[in-house]
Amino acid sequence: MNYVTHTLHNGLRVAMCQTDAKVAYIGVVVGSGSRDELPERHGLAHFVEHTIFKGTWKRRSSAISARMESIGGELNASTSKETTIIYTTAPTGYADRAIELLADIIANSLFPTHEIEMEHEVVVEEIKSYLDTPSENVYDEYEERIFKGNALAHNILGTPESVRSLTGRECRQFLDLNYTPGNMVVYISAPDDPEKLIKRVDKHFGLLNFPFRRYPRILPDDLPPFDEVIDNDGFQAHTIFGTRTVSRDDPRRYALYLLNNYIGGPCMSSLLNSELREKRGLVYAVDSFNSMFSDTGLWSVYIGCDKSNVKKCLSIVKRELDRLAQTTMSDRMLDKIKTQYCGQLLVSTDNRENMAINMGKSLLFRDAIYDTSHTAECIRAVNADRLREAAELLSPSRCSRLTLL
Questions:
Q1: Residue 101 falls inside a structural domain
Q2: CATH code for the domain in which residue 70 is found
Q3: pLDDT tens digit string along 88-123?
Q4: Residue 295: which of 331, 256, 247 has the closest Cα?
Q5: 33 contacts: CB under 8 Å, gap ≥ 6
Q6: pTM for the whole thing?
Q7: Which of 41, 150, 206, 345 gets the highest tally of CB atoms within 10 A of its CB?
Q8: 145 and 254 co-located in one domain
Q9: Containing domain of residue 120, as a range?
Q10: Span 26-65, pLDDT tens digits
């Protein structure tokens, strides 16, 4: 892929990839999320994502949604702990429309009071839907404990009480603090000429001059492991078992990527799916995840099973983690799991929207574009010793467990 990067005079960075596709993917990645809220304003970052489309000085809410939809495109957004993404998808030929619209809602959103009041209840219903889904709620409960006392602990949506207290003025203040040129990247994947795209971005985003003033982030404390069961009288058990690991800039991350994919990645042949489901029929779902933040990380396994199987499943998970930390993987097996992971990376390039978003994130976090070919190269460089050292980070003695019944 041929990438072009550019920095505007106000510090806004632009990541571009010229393609031969008939669809353009254009968006803004913001380096702030729920971690950057004040304690009494939980859910604010996500609420801003919802309400940023509700009207500007130039457009009413209906005009904003119709601007891309009228040409068959899409305007959407998502929020995580440390990032917010506002993005568009459209047929080629409408790049200027998408860029101008994104700039308008970031610079000029009004957060009207009547829209804010209606959206309170929309988000509260979203919160209730998560609470009614224990397989998703267990992650929030787990993070509240493992990051206790830190802004990473609270869930992204907030609580019904905190959301209903949010005002349009607070939304605008959060946007002005965090949606600043130095904390954003505009990404564009389209067939248009990059030089022309830069001029369009400069025309619409070059007027932004908010200084970067995000509140400082505090590293979570290292807390002792916990082992907790919450009985909600459900039909099945939902368990998270995991531990704190490394940040997204730590060189050990590649070994962890590879190890996690082997342990509980998306394949039916993953270690835990094979041991718990295929061989023993103990679970209906088992997956493992890496979540890496600016200063820390979290590795976890999710187990969905009958209540009577929780203890047996955890015993097998601990046994396999101990084995990986205490033995060196054979060259043949190591090459096999590398081939699988790198193949998955190659397949992922077929999703152009995700590739465009990852391009923007890479420039935001690393000030350079590292694509899947770079990741594959780093994965290939992982040796058996590095893999075993990564497994030591996941030692059962360091792990905490939470089960929702």
A1: yes
A2: 3.30.830.10
A3: 999 999 999 999 999 999 999 999 999 999 999 999
A4: 247
A5: 45, 79, 80, 81, 82, 83, 84, 156
A6: 0.92
A7: 41
A8: no
A9: 3-205
A10: 999 999 999 999 888 999 999 999 999 999 999 999 999 9
